[in-house]
Amino acid sequence: MKNLIDILDLSVQEIDEMIEVANDIIDHPEKYREACNYKTLATLFFEPSTRTRLSFEAAMLELGGRVLGFSEASSSSAAKGESVADTIAVCCGYSDIIAMRHPKEGAPLVASAKATVPIINAGDGGHNHPTQTLTDLLTIKREKGHFNDLTIGLCGDLKFGRTVHSLIAAMSRYSGIKFVLISPEELKVPSYVKNAYIKSKNIPYEQTIALENVIDKLDVLYMTRVQRERFFNEEDYLRLKDCYVLTPEKMAMAKKDLIVLHPLPRVNEISVAVDDDPRACYFRQARYGKFIRMALIMKLLEEANK
Ligand code: NCD
């Protein structure tokens, strides 16, 4: 059974093929309206979500499929003490494919060991978020045209930001990549991520706390929210929450063909005054998330039927 637990579960070629399908869906949505007739997607969300859950549901509905699920742990039997493994064993009987989000790192992997239908990791704690990365890759491809020779700045909460970890893993497979890691000391990229995907591959990188010192050399700027729910104390969060705010003044220092991505939700880290800048891609990026998830659902259902 093919699952998507980690972005590296997909080869570069598989990602290329899915991006092609997503682009074809954008151009010819009518071709795909019955692609998943009579198939059911379950969205099991033990943590809050807007874009990820709704784009999964919109994706399945636009493929002619059906959706069911829950959007908070408190409305599922997890609140009564049921284990993830038991919830999954049961939901496999009600659906053909499952997208799950969970606050515990590794929960979707545990689920996939039990499951009889494909499992998609829709975010596990501060660990990984592979479908956001697929969204990010589709956005980079559409906006930049390629993945090679890009200097990618990642800014904000690089420690708890799971989207950052998956994006670094994915981009480390292309050539000519440079990473610029912009964060306060307390929120640096975890060493396991740096070792596995940057250092071991000899990818050039620099670490800094000052966005304004490096913004001029970036091709992609990936902004992130400080992950309040993963902090151990509120005091640290309050001290760090506004460490970066992208403003029109900072954008004036950047390349003319920079693209600014953000997985959203945004709190304060991008001023709304930046939204009208043509280089601000984050709302387009959120929209692309539906199309790449359509491609993913079709792919995993196809593999499951082999
Ligand atoms: C992200 C997540 O859940 O990790 N959101 C998303 O899925 N688009 C980013 C975040 O919550 O900050």
Protein model, in words:
Helix 6 links the parallel strand 5 (151-155) and strand 6 (178-182). The longest helix has 23 residues, at 282-304. It is globular, with a radius of gyration of 19 Å. The chain has 2 domains: 7-128 and 289-304, Aspartate/ornithine carbamoyltransferase (Rossmann fold, 3-Layer(aba) Sandwich), CATH 3.40.50.1370; 130-285, Aspartate/ornithine carbamoyltransferase (Rossmann fold). The strands form 2 sheets. It has a 5-stranded parallel β-sheet. The protein has 306 residues and is α/β, with parallel strands linked by helices. Helices cover 38% and strands 14% of the residues. Helix 1 (12-27) crosses helix 11, helix 3 packs across helix 4 and helix 5 (130-144) packs across helix 11 (282-304). Bound molecules: N-carbamoyl-L-aspartate. N-carbamoyl-L-aspartate (NCD) binds next to helix 2 and helix 6.
Spell out the key features of this protein.
306 residues, alpha/beta, Rossmann fold, 2 domains, 5-stranded parallel β-sheet, 4-stranded parallel β-sheet, 38% helix, globular, binds N-carbamoyl-L-aspartate
- Radius of gyration over alpha carbons? 19 Å
Strand-residue proportion? 5-15%
Spans of at least 5 consecutive residues with low confidence = none
Write down the domain tally. 2
Query: Portion of residues in helices?
Result: 25-40%
Mean pLDDT across all amino acids? 97
Largest sheet: 5 strands, parallel
Number of helical stretches of at least 4 residues: 11
CATH fold-type name of the largest domain:
Rossmann fold
The helix/strand class is: alpha/beta
Strand order of the largest sheet: 7-6-5-8-9
| CATH superfamily placement of the largest domain | Aspartate/ornithine carbamoyltransferase
Strand tally: 9
Helix/strand order: HEHEHEHEHEHEHEHEHHEH
The geometry reads as globular
